[in-house]
Design brief:
The protein is of the alpha+beta class. The chain contains 2 helices and 7 strands, in the order ββββαβββα. It has a single domain, classed as Alpha-Beta Complex (Nucleoside Triphosphate Pyrophosphohydrolase). β1 and β2 (39-45) form a beta hairpin. The longest helix has 13 residues, at 67-79. The protein is elongated and about 95 Å long. The relative contact order is 0.26.
């Protein structure tokens, strides 16, 4: 008859430590503001990366804030254009690795259409602000040309 199997106490306790490394992801919002006459609102960046280049208005989402709220806030802070968050239409999420040289950034992009003659003013982080013709854009910072293309495709 076989011997009964009895559980044995381990002679030593082994602990396995699992170390996981998570990349820091920064959460931002960008906004494409267009006019019916074929112009888009751009800001000139006053800071690196891409200092001096043209870009869409946008910035970091603050604690306790939605990306939609952040897009409306950044638009007002950088260009003086005020819009209620619920006026903004979501275009999509842009999270391609390498889209920002500072690290991993995920942005939610929004769209707003305004009437020609809407006054704009360079404020906050923007050195300058201008209406640029959609068919003759300057080189844009980050992946903002892709965001503009997605906005056009969306409409």
């Amino acid at each position: 008859m076989p011997e009964p199997i009895t559980p044995q106490q381990p002679t030593s306790q082994r602990t396995t430590t699992v170390t996981e490394t998570f990349e820091t992801i920064r959460y931002t919002a960008d906004i494409v503001v267009t006019r019916a006459d074929g112009y888009v609102l751009l800001i000139q960046r006053g800071w690196d990366p891409h200092k001096g280049m043209w870009a869409l208005p946008g910035g970091h989402v603050d604690a306790g804030e939605t990306s939609r709220d952040a897009a409306a806030r950044e638009l007002a802070e950088e260009t003086g254009v005020y819009a209620a968050p619920d006026e903004l239409e979501q275009i999509g999420v842009f999270d391609q690795p390498g889209r920002d040289p500072r690290g991993r950034y995920v942005t939610v992009a929004y769209h707003l259409t305004v009437i020609p003659g809407t006054p704009v003013e360079a404020k906050d982080d923007a050195v300058a602000v201008r209406w640029a013709p959609l068919d003759d854009l300057p080189p844009l910072a980050f992946d903002h040309a892709d965001i503009l293309a997605a906005t056009r495709h969306h409409h």
